[in-house]
Amino acid sequence: MENTGYTTLTRQSGLMREMRIVANNIANAATTGFRQEGLVFSEYVMSVDGASSLSMGQGNVRNTSFDQGTLTQTGGTFDFAIEGEGFFLVETPDGERLTRSGAFTPNAEGDLVTFDGYRVLDAGGAPVFIPPGASDIAVAADGTISSEGNPVGQIGAVQPVNPREMVREDGVMFRADDGFEPAENARILQRFVENSNVNPVLQITRMIEVQRAYELGASFLDAEDERVRQAMRSMSE
Prior knowledge:
The longest helix has 37 residues, at 200-236. This protein has helices at 3-27, 200-236, and strands spanning 37-46, 54-64, 71-73, 80-83, 87-92, 95-99, 105-106, 112-113, 119-120, 137-139, 144-147, 150-154, 157-160, 167-168, 173-175, 180-182, 187-190, 192-194. The chain starts with a helix and ends with a helix. Strand 5 and strand 6 (95-99) form a beta hairpin. It is an alpha+beta fold. It has two domains: 3-66 and 198-236; 73-194, no CATH class. Helices cover 26% and strands 32% of the residues.
């Protein structure tokens, strides 16, 4: 295969990966706390002996958008949203993870848990406990939980030390290998949840653009294949 074919194939591979990412964004447009992803393309240049350098485009780096999603008032006592930077800290079987999805509920033991049953933690890594029979639950902007005016715990809001190095493990969970620290400027709102920050219209538009670009590349490969076949037929005559 000639260089033009290799170059086009690397572009097609990147476009296919971007199409999967865009489709996943659209599928999660209504998922609470979901962070939109994008694909970063880079140019790979390699020197070739006796010829000009060879340049190929690669799309291998995923980029997560941490823009604030719209906040929706739910009225749920244990629904929370973070206004500004920061993440809720939760305990999973694989370790502590960060999320912006704040639809919580107390379990049978009184621990505040996520939809998947993972315990919500305070900034120190201890589970957030809601005493049995607690009433008139209120949460302050710093995450302090009170029952009938008496503090009973605090929801942790943390900020990763290196946000760009976080690893997405599923739709709304992130792993911060470089560690995290208290999010000083985060404001926790009770009876609200944060919507996905996906813009469906822009994502559908991008999907159409990627599809057209992929079809154009496929047409070029078909034409190139026919050109090579024609050349081989002419040489064999």
